[in-house]
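Journal club side-thread
Mid-discussion, someone asked how the predicted structure for our own chain would compare to the paper's figures. Pasting it here so we can look after the session.
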Amino acid sequence: MAQPAAWDHPEPLAVDSAPRPEYGTGSLADLLPTLAAGMGVPDMTAAITELTPVDRACVFLIDGLGWEQVKAHPQEAPFLTSLLPSSRGGTGRPLTAGYPATTATSLASVGTGLPPGAHGLPGYTARNPDTGELMNQLRWHPWTPPAAWQPYPTVFELADRAGVHAAQVSSPAFQNTPLTKVALSGGTFHGRLTGEERMDLAAEQLAAGDRSLVYTYYAELDGAGHRYGVASDTWVGQLMYVDRLVQRLAEQLPPRSALYVTADHGMVDVPFDERHRIDFDEDWELSAGVALLGGEGRARHVYAVPGAANDVLTCWREVLGEQFWVASRDEAIAAGWFGPHIDERVYARIGDVIAAARDDVLLIASQREPKESLMVGNHGSMTPAEQLVPLLEVRS
């Protein structure tokens, strides 16, 4: 006799069913090493084989501009849409951000040319094994010595040593932040307030050397998505502005140059109801045995009290396993979520349990993270809407 439906317990999502980022062939971490290798910078590997070497390259990173979001707005972003066939060296394919698909992790991957398991910024917040505290890697709180947290040189530093003109053009507010220091330092920093000023100066900096590597950045699209969602008029208005900025820069490229437009992650809107927003702070099952809750709503690091890691893993799989990929630290590492290798100093920064959302759900913490819990647009996981980012190309 068949059992009632209430007795059915679907199997949790298999860890190896999560789409692994294309580390080593087509991830954000591979972009700058590929460009630098084409300029003759020693010890750099041209991992994105579809890209043709160029003497002068500008990377314009637009925070939150996912591949799927560009494709969904052809009328609002006509110039970006016209470049979609150029993505990834004319293949019309995106890059993968890396896991988690979040700003601090992705910027470190871009700037160092290393996956998260090496550069060591494995999430929005992660445990510092030396102090036992959660470390916010975007805001760099509590203070942690930057060079100890991320000791590798950036690609900009290596390019500058090799005689390449390296420059960053961004908001003045970012010039002296620890995240800039560990991820994007090297060459010269030029602070400009408006997007138009950044585009104009980025073009000037490209022309300043026979070989140039220039980085510029725009953050406000991401902010609009978090606050209002990617379905909002505010977000679409920001996209229209970004489209004009990209065209402005493209029209000023000096000879022998290429512009690459990319992003750190995409974004998904999550409805405000109990089915889509699970509150850790109100759930006694999920909180049992948990010492620290790290990461963010769609990409959680879970740090168990001593001896409770297996029980926490079992419980989280039972409660969330149909909507989240739930893995132990070693399972996530073996599956390549954080890259092919994990540095020893990084291992304990990764949660005892990792939970990555597959569905349009969010694991909020209304008391611990009140501001983050109210965001409309979210990101972090490995779904195409979050993980895939463009690599649009314009050559002069």
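Post-session note: The CA atoms of residues 79 and 247 lie 7 Å apart.
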